[in-house]
Amino acid sequence: MSRDVILFGDSGGTRDLLAVIPPHRIKMIIGAERRPQYLDDLKHLADNVGAEFCLHPFARNYEAVAQFSVKVNKSDASYVVINSYSMRVPASIVGSYRGKMVNVHYSLLPMNRGPHPENWALIHGHEKTGVTLHHVSSEIDTGSVILQKEVAVDQSDTWVSLLSRLTLAAHDHVLPYIGDVVCSHGIFEPGVDQDFAEVTSNHALDADYPRLDPAGMTDRQMFNLIRAQVFPLKGAYYEGHSGRHHIDYYVPLSDIPALRLRIQNMA
Predict the structure, then answer these.
(1) Which terminus of the chain, N or C, has less C-beta within 10 A?
(2) What are the respective helix, strand and coil percentages of the chain, to the nearest 5?
(3) How confident is the model at residue 51 (pLDDT cuts 50, 70, 90)?
């Protein structure tokens, strides 16, 4: 049987897909230059299943991206599946595989398009989020929705616990659907267009963003930002006499007023 599946992902996302797609069907495994920490493991996974490993270069390297796009398009795969991936797929690849390329996104699209959706669900104070399987289009996370599974957000959640439940929902509901389509040589359902009126899009989180502002934030906003940045992230921070002080642990909402007072006294 021919190899006809291309996978885009980090180590975890690719391993999850390999659990539902037969290894002998994998033609190519693609890793993002933006996440070099996963590349060796992805190469190892590709070797294990007899697939080719291919590096997706940074967009600023125009010539390398053009060569990468030609290589992927020449593969003429039947399915392209993206799971836990950090770079925008070149438009020429999206166009070549339209209808055959899907992405697993950890939000209830069109809410929380873009990076770090589980963190943003907490920052925005959403009471629910979920996992979405959608077609890939030219703009990030805008394609038609094939399948969704809702996940409730609890007051005790941090991004770590929420991500764990989202991963379980993906394993139980979304990944099996992908496996069924590929194993049966079927087609992905056309899906439902996203409601533009419900769209929220987020920027990438960085070291400067999760700053606590006691004067400008409510207790709930401070609470949400802290729990969205707990360890193994560095933590939300406030400015003190000796520089930045990071809070990389969960702080109950009831304890935020005391924290606010402590921060103000250190300013």
Answers:
(1) N
(2) 40, 20, 40
(3) very high
Is 258 within 8 Å of 252 (Cβ atoms)? no
Residue 193 vs residues 26, 157, 263: alpha-carbon distances, Å: 29, 30, 45
In degrees, rounded to 5, the angle at the alpha carbon of residue 20 between the alpha carbons of residues 16 and 22 is 115
- According to DSSP, residue 64 is labeled H
H runs (alpha helix) in 184-255: 219-227
Helix (H) or strand (E) holding 123: helix 117-123
HSE-CB for 236 with a 13 A CA cutoff: 24
The pLDDT tens digits for 210-259 are 999 999 999 999 999 999 999 999 999 998 888 899 999 999 999 999 99
**Nearest-5° angle of CA 188, CA 143, CA 191?**
40
DSSP 21: S
Task: Using a pLDDT cut of 90, give the percent of the chain over it.
Answer: 92
Q: Could you identify the residue written with the tokens 């290589």?
A: 71
Residue 144 CB coordination number (10 Å) = 18
Domains plus CATH for the chain?
Answer: 5-198 (3.40.50.170), 219-266 (no CATH)
Round the CA-based radius of gyration of the chain to a whole number and report it.
Answer: 20
Confidence of residue 264 (pLDDT cuts 50, 70, 90): confident
Structure tokens at 70: 């030609």
Q: What is the total residue count of the chain?
A: 267
Q: Which of 158, 162, 125, 161 is nearest to 226 (CA)?
A: 158
